Amino acid sequence: MGDPPPDPEPRPQQPSSRRSSQVSQRRSRELSHLPPTISEEVPRIAFDDRVLQSGQGILASQNNFQDWSSGPPLTQQENLTMFQAEEAQLGGVEYPSLNMGFQPQPYLEEGGIQAARNTSLMQQLQQGQGSLFQQLDSAYLETQPNFLGQFNMYQGEDLQFNQGAPHGPYMRDDPALQYSPSELGFMPFSVEVPEPEPRELAVQNAKAYLLQTSVSCSLSLYEHLVNLLTKILNQRPEDPLSLLESLNRTTQWEWFHPRLDTMRDDPEMEPTYETADRQKGLFLRSGAAGEGEQEMEEEVAETAVPNVMETAFYFEQAGVALSSDESFRIFMALKQLVEQQPIHTCRFWGKVLGLSRSYLVAEVEFREGEEEGEEEEVEEPMEGGEGLDAHAEEEGEEDEEKATDVIPKPMWKPPPVIPKEESRSGTNKYLYFVCNEPGRPWTRLPHVTPVQIVQARKIKKFFTGYLDAPVISFPPFPGNEASYLRAQIARISAATHISPLGFYQFGEEEGDEEEGGAGRDSYEENPDFEGIPVLELVDSMANWVHHTQHILPQGRCTWVNPLQKMEEEEELGEEEEKADEGLEDVEQEVGPPLLTPLSEDAEIMHMSPWTAHLSCSLCPQYSVAVMRSNLWPGAYAYASGKKFENIYIGWGHKYSPENFNPPLPAPIQHEYPSSPEVMEMTDPTVEEEQALKAAQEQALAASEEEEEDEEEDEDEDLED
Amino acid sequence: MDAESLLLSLELASGSGQGLSPDRRASLLTSLTLVKRDYRYDRVLFWGRILGLVADYYIAQGLSEDQLAPRKTLYSLNCMEWSLLPPATEDMVVQTSVVKGRFMGDPSHEYEHTELQKMSEGEKVFEEEVVVQIKEETRLVSVIDQIDKAVAVIPRGALFKTPLGPIHVNRTFEGLSLSEAKKLSSYFHFREPVELKNKTLLEKADLDPSLDFMDSLEHDIPKGSWSIQMERGNALVVLRSLLWPGLTFFHAPRTKNYGYIYVGTGEKNIDLPFML
């Protein structure tokens, strides 16, 4: 039939024969693997030797395979492709890694048969060793009907096609009939005709060309197309043409990123599962075991947990909401917090966004007596805060006479430390707990100091989401991010916590206790409060009042005279008079008293600090009044009937119509005091030098004359 | 965010507290459907909300078949009646750049800006104060355009370029993988590429021309102008622009859900370099 191979190479392992492709190498490897499974009585090496050295059958076909692109004879080409098909079949059973992209289903049932068929084939091959190609070919031809029979039997789903054209060589080439890669692999069997026709030859050549593996990987275009078409036929997407490119890409991707079915967890998913695990704790009832109902009753009776869901509902009406799912998690997290801490009242303050994490803030009040347990008094972080001011005032009375390197003592005295407000008063009225995500532990924020508030007003920084992160800013902020967060919370609370007029009233007995006009600092709920109609709340700012104390420029809610403190320390200071001079004109700072209506709020550049609107303009009867702060974007308040609530969700920055302008660095200090003693003299000019020289000479001459005169005088005296 | 999946999208984007009240949501769903029919848009995006002192602007955008073609922008004050905004021009941007402060919520409101103009009368050249009136509508157009150009985001692979040029929605987009979702390089500016052609051949070598045809967020200036956060235990990635605070982009990895919404005052954060 076909011509003998043009140049049969004796050993396929030679490099020259490897050039063709990895497929052929793989095939030869597999062929060498086959014998042990087939005929165990024949030692593998011997068999290999026989196969290789006899140089017929397989070898010839392999050589042909390697040279296919140069147009090998048809029959050997067919042998070849048949081998390839067998390999694919075998691969389906024994080497799963080889055809991951192939559909496994068609193969599985065939596996056993294929193996059996291969055995017989190999036996025939062994018999035919040393004989002519014709014999080999005829052996294939003899087996062919069997193969086809088997094929038709086991390709159940394609039965109708195969029955329609059981032996039609060209019908099977029709792409419409190709159904699965296995069939494509079998194609050569059916087109086995004694006399090759030119068209068929071309088809075979084309296929052989497609079977070439690419340079960089062991995948051939043929296999890839098979995978791709299989995928399209299995998934049946709508309008496949438009998807072709992306399908192409995903198929290729899948080939290289097989989805491995391993016991190991996907490391990427680890944090997700961890979070879910952590949050699971929130949803389990704490003391769940036996006495369920009893506990339930107790809990129903009294709890400090706020009704977050109700608040979330009203804020959703207002168009400011975390999703209800998130709200519920926060609710559960607050419940957890109340269980862990001796909390009297608790409120969801809001959410402060950070760069990599956000903070959920809870505002709590401890029960009487349970206070400050774990709070360690960090002793005055003042020094850090005032480095910036320590400039320029160093009057340089350096004692030049001493001449030793005594480090000059700065004459500057730090301004008096303004004491922090007591807990339960002023800016430290409440305690704040923060956590990054529901389920994570709550962390308590430290009390805020006046200097922190003063400095926080001067800077504008994003929160990172890590409480211990340093705040790198100018002017420097005393403390880390926890302190900065606490300072901002205090500022936001003071500016944006509002309630309808009349909800709170001043306690009667507290009358005028507070001297100094800072106003009363406590209030109580008004039991007679009837609620203000929503429309009135929206119409007039006077119906809303601040119920958090204004923070004075000093950083406290109640003013403290820094001078008094100085007097206490008088015995220490030497320059107290000087300091007193500086502070003498300190005026008492007065802020608006508690429960001041919003209508008194200062305007920001001709714009009102609050925007009021109805939650739903379509049916005002049932809507709630919503206040939006323009000064602190993200702060909202709602009121409806007797209910009201404040929330803040934002970046924690105050709105300013002007750009943020960091203060300029302080002027450079003088290195030394400039006085005549340390001034360098200017060099004399030539004229000056000459003049000096002349003057000196003159003086010299004059003195000589004088001497002469004196001598003369002496002489005269002597003479006398 | 897609108007059709508005409810889910709002839920996913709610981490920044920017929601819509139920009545707004319902009316948007109704009216945007009608907008799509009346203006014959291929897709309608709910773009967001610009908070004014008196009222808020609700903004929607209509997209044609080619996703990167200039978008039509509509605004509404009550979520029902939509009015088409003119396309932004260079002049508008220049003209409105002098306006500062918050939006009012009234499109016919006029900002007054006095500027010095050089007048020449014969030989004399003198400066004269001229009061320029700038309509808020113009400012609205310009701000929306600026935000769109600066911070509109789309995940890589959500759009693909067809061989003939138009850009279509990629139907096979199945979401970014988790590891990709954490990188800024997997997100693109949803606009005509500007930086892409300035890249060197070496940088372009690894790009897939049908997917990487837009600028990625990776090299945005200033560096660090995006906050990228994983929420809900890695089930949601949220990008927040620090340059235009209020813009939130969300994407649930390995799903097709993605989108962005702007709810803010319409002011750029020019203090950003001091705040990082």
UniProtKB/TrEMBL annotation, chain A:
Name the residue ranges with Pro residues bias.
1-13
User: Gene Ontology cellular component?
Assistant: radial spoke
Q: One GO BP annotation here?
A: axoneme assembly
Q: Where is this region: Disordered?
A: 1-41, 366-421, 567-586, 667-720
- Start-end of Low complexity biased regions: 14-25, 692-702
Which InterPro entries does the entry mention? Answer: Radial_spoke
Q: Output compositional bias ranges, type Acidic residues.
A: 368-383, 703-720
The protein's UniProt keywords, in alphabetical order, are: Cell projection, Cilium, Cytoplasm, Cytoskeleton
* Compartment(s) of residence: Cytoplasm, Cytoskeleton, Cilium axoneme
Q: What is this protein called?
A: Radial spoke head protein 6 homolog A
Q: Source taxonomy lineage? A: Eukaryota, Metazoa, Chordata, Craniata, Vertebrata
Automatic annotation (TrEMBL), chain B:
Q: Name one GO cellular component term.
A: kinocilium
Q: Which residues form the signal peptide?
A: none
Q: Which InterPro entries match?
A: RSP9
Q: Where does the UniProt annotation locate this protein?
A: Cell projection, Kinocilium; Cytoplasm, Cytoskeleton, Flagellum axoneme
Any one Gene Ontology biological process term? cilium movement involved in cell motility
Q: Which UniProt keywords apply?
A: Cell projection, Cilium, Cilium biogenesis/degradation, Cytoplasm, Cytoskeleton, Flagellum
Principal subcellular localization = other
**Entry-linked PANTHER family:** MITOCHONDRIAL RIBOSOMAL PROTEIN S18, RADIAL SPOKE HEAD PROTEIN 9 HOMOLOG
Which family does the entry's similarity section mention? Belongs to the flagellar radial spoke RSP9 family.
Q: What is this protein called?
A: Radial spoke head protein 9 homolog
Taxonomic source organism: Odobenus rosmarus divergens
Q: Which gene encodes it?
A: RSPH9
